Amino acid sequence: MEQNQNIENLNKELSSISPQAQVEGEKKAVKPRRRAPKQKVILTKGKRKEAVARAKLVKGNGIIKINGVNVELIKPVERRELILEPVNFSNITKEIASSSNIYVNVKGGGASGQAQAARNAIAKAIAAAANSDIVRKAYMRYDRTLLIDDVRQVEPKKFLGPKARARFQTSYR
Q: What domains are defined for the chain?
């Protein structure tokens, strides 16, 4: 009881000296900021040769973009079909893709390796968004490389030859 009176007396003295001094002694109550509800975002990555693709799946209206370009504008058609293979796989995957936006960023490698890396990343994102093992198992039965990165790399060139395994032709005359 006595301590409370001492604190009150000190506060009165401080307030009479300067209003700044009282603020330094007490902590101000901070209002919690209101944040918008977080969207469910799924981030995945896919690799093929030197290409690395990072996919981001968010709720949306079925837009698929590769490096900022709509997937429908990608040519040749074979490459576009390869990228869209996980989307057009079944009715469940089409439904998931139509209710969400998929943004893919691909770096490294050549055009074919980038397409396969993007395909891998999109398939992983759709499998994660499905919230069940059905899509994952169906992908695995169809083509294992849809969900598992292909770790094979080009063998480095060695001396005594033009390529990794080939040797220079020898002349005996």
A: 42-146 (3.30.230.10)
